[in-house]
Amino acid sequence: MSTTEFTVVGGGIAGLVVARRLSMAGRTVRLIEASDHLGGTVASHLVGGLNLDAGAESFATRGNTVADLARELGLGDDIVSPGDEGAWLQPVEGPALPLPATGILGIPATPLDKDTIAVIGLGGAFRAQLDSLIPWFGKRTDVSLGALVRRRMGKAVVEKLVAPVVHGVYSLHPNDLPLERVATLKERLALHGSLAAAVRSMRHAMPAGTAVQGIRGGINRLVTELAADLTTYGVIVEFERRIESAEALADLDGTVIVAAPGILAPVRGRTVTLATLVLDAPELDAEPRGSGVLVAPGCTKVSARALTHATAKWQWLKEQAEGRHVVRLSYNEVPAGDFAEVARRDAEVLLGVSLPVEAVVDFARREWTRPAPLAPAERTDGVVVVGETVGGTGLAGIVTHANAAADRLLALAAEGPADGEDAATGDEPNEAAKEVS
Ligand SMILES: Cc1cc2nc3c(=O)[nH]c(=O)nc-3n(C[C@H](O)[C@H](O)[C@H](O)COP(=O)(O)OP(=O)(O)OC[C@H]3O[C@@H](n4cnc5c(N)ncnc54)[C@H](O)[C@@H]3O)c2cc1C
């Protein structure tokens, strides 16, 4: 008889959260991880002697889920908000402009404010204002964010504001982003009747008005603390074991939770390449582009789709960097040639300052695959799935989803075995799973 009640496959943030929650409730848990370390896309690397996030570097504040987790892990005093300089936009043509500060995903909260007019022009702003007059019937649910915004606020808002932000956040055009993936926007639109009012209400719901927060020392500290809890609660972690297929799940003990992409369906994801530059460049002390720059799709001045001036965004990092600057650029496609040189030149254009080769103290490249959402037909009956393929993009959605999955598994386990069968010992390993998946 197996003593493992739950096997979690994948040690990214989703798998760690589920394994921790189950083991804290006294359940026996095994976690299987393909690589030699935990955390998945929440990772760190050393660049220019600085320990930096190599993947996720902030979390959305909505729902407070990640902040609550950080507090549970003893990181509450280290939750930090980014500086309030805001970000900039690099349009297809013309110079970079400040991103209107009050929007969500570039959708303006007040279409006629001066920063919005500066980006989309007066005509575009008047068109956007029509949003307040167009009734919302909300019948269609399969609409994209781009189609919705175009209908209510016009083309200029989609192409000049929303597209650069969505491109920077999701690596997608808003026409390819289902409205369902934008947390609570549809519900708030139904409630308030206009997009601008829905955006204002979303902003209002954010703690202290900030959409994202970070952790002093880096988001990767979540992984260190989660891993420590797994040890405390007796989770057995198997490294360097890859589960190759859905069929192989049947050989695992207890109720199986899939927290890794690529098992139930091949990963059809996009590759995102990150360039991190540590710079000795006093010109950047003035933080010319605030926390960074989002690049409009179709802009041919640079290859990057977004730049984060990390030392301007995070005060703790500025202190650690002791006068140097950390800049992070993301790419959907990396042009041929010397990537460090491409990144340096893109940083020069986007930040609007000269950055000679000697200014580059160190450079690092990381490549990640962002998995596509699992299609309903790819969900296998009786297999619990957590993580990015089902919980949405980003830590807030993934942690919320993983917490809920663990809670439902625990509730089912507490109900105990039915008809004399012990569902927690492997006789019917995925009976419980059928109800949570
Ligand atoms: C460059 C970048 C920046 C990002 N920035 C942010 C951000 O600032 N804020 C934010 O909220 N989100 C951000 N995200 C998204 C966020 O990091 C991810 O959505 C999240 O970390 C995914 O967690 P996960 O547990 O679902 O998957 P993963 O992190 O992918 O973890 C999956 C784990 O499963 C393991 N595994 C894979 N296959 C197998 C197998 N067959 N058998 C066993 N183990 C396996 C992997 O090795 C990995 O450890 C970013 C993503 C990227 C790529």
UniProtKB/TrEMBL annotation:
Gene3D superfamilies tied to this protein: FAD/NAD(P)-binding domain, protoporphyrinogen ix oxidase, domain 3, Protoporphyrinogen oxidase, mitochondrial, domain 2
Amine oxidase domain residues: 13-240
Stored InterPro entries: Amino_oxidase (IPR002937), FAD/NAD-bd_sf (IPR036188), Zeta_carotene_desat/Oxidored (IPR050464)
Superkingdom of origin organism: Bacteria
Acidic residues biased stretches: 418-430
Region Disordered, annotated ranges: 416-437
Pfam family, one: Amino_oxidase
GO MF entries: oxidoreductase activity
PANTHER family: PROTOPORPHYRINOGEN OXIDASE
UniProt protein name: Oxygen-dependent protoporphyrinogen oxidase
Record organism: Salinibacterium amurskyense
The organism's taxonomic lineage, starting at the top: Bacteria, Bacillati, Actinomycetota, Actinomycetes, Micrococcales
